[in-house]
Amino acid sequence: MSDTHVSDFDHEAGFGDYFALLKPRVMSLVIFTALVGLVAAPVSVHPVVALSSILFIAIGAGASGALNMWWDADIDAVMKRTVKRPVPSGRVTADEALAIGVALSGLSVVMLALAANILAGALLAFTIFFYAVIYTMILKRWTPQNIVIGGAAGAFPPMIGWAVATGSVSVESVLMFALTFMWTPPHFWALALFMNSDYDKANVPMLTVTHGRRVTRNHILGYTLALVPVAMGIGFTSIGGYAYLAIATVLNVMFLKGAYDVWQRDDVTAEADGYRTEKRLFRLSLSYLFLHFAAILVEATMRSFGIGGW
């Protein structure tokens, strides 16, 4: 277990501190991709069931964030990007974070199973376990492949949303999972290229720390080449269509170009311009995933009006 790093309390914890504990930015992506998975499914869901399910999925994501901050308090305390989080800053104690994470985990899983179905609840339970235990407690501090394997945790929400609607897993939901799973490594490695000192200082075996930036650049290009057919393949399934393919084509050409530009650079050039190209790829990666799922949502909306799709 991590050491509890708590500075002197600047003030009593408020609602905003506890909300920050749930990683709202990550939660927003979870909510959006789960909603897309639910809406894209070929089965209509009662609005009350749909809204309840998304709420419980969001609570489950928040629980994962709280458990992550509880365990990683020592790492967060020495990283510039995370030092102001509620636990390392001392606004919330590690024990509080653990209690909130465990309580919300149980609540979200049980309520999703009751509101939707057992499969959706089981997938949410596995997602929380995978992120909090497999990734946070084991992989993150043990292997440079941490972000590759651990990326599965962030890839489950659209599959959970699909399971809420259908009570099953399908090719479409697996491909939505694969899209996020394959996107995660180049996204985080692009960040690691210009935030490497943070990971080095915290002794996190990110690929940039263990194998250097040259190997990381190779991996970014390799995973991007593997990502493209997954992203484009979705366009030929029941949740795809001409609109999705048009958007995906533009995005993947841009992402490939960005990954290639990062791959062909060396450290001297990157340091000279403040990692401008690497930062550009990271920013593009944020839009890349959002716009792919937005395109799936557009196709689902068009189909509801009898247009789009195949």
UniProtKB/TrEMBL annotation:
Pathway: Porphyrin-containing compound metabolism; heme O biosynthesis; heme O from protoheme: step 1/1. One of its GO terms (molecular function) is protoheme IX farnesyltransferase activity. PROSITE patterns: UBIA. Its main location: membrane. Keywords: Cell membrane, Heme biosynthesis, Membrane, Transferase, Transmembrane, Transmembrane helix. It catalyses: heme b + (2E,6E)-farnesyl diphosphate + H2O = Fe(II)-heme o + diphosphate. It comes from the Bacteria. InterPro entries: Protohaem_IX_farnesylTrfase, UbiA_prenyltransferase, UbiA_prenylTrfase_CS, UbiA_sf. The chain crosses the membrane at residues 26-43, 49-71, 118-139, 146-165, 177-199, 220-236, 242-260, 281-302. It is a multi-pass membrane protein. Coiled coil: none annotated. It is found in: Cell membrane. Its EC number is 2.5.1.141. NCBIfam families: cyoE_ctaB, PRK04375.1-2. Belongs to the UbiA prenyltransferase family. Protoheme IX farnesyltransferase subfamily. Interacts with CtaA. Carbon 2 of the heme B porphyrin ring is defined according to the Fischer nomenclature. Converts heme B (protoheme IX) to heme O by substitution of the vinyl group on carbon 2 of heme B porphyrin ring with a hydroxyethyl farnesyl side group. This is Protoheme IX farnesyltransferase.
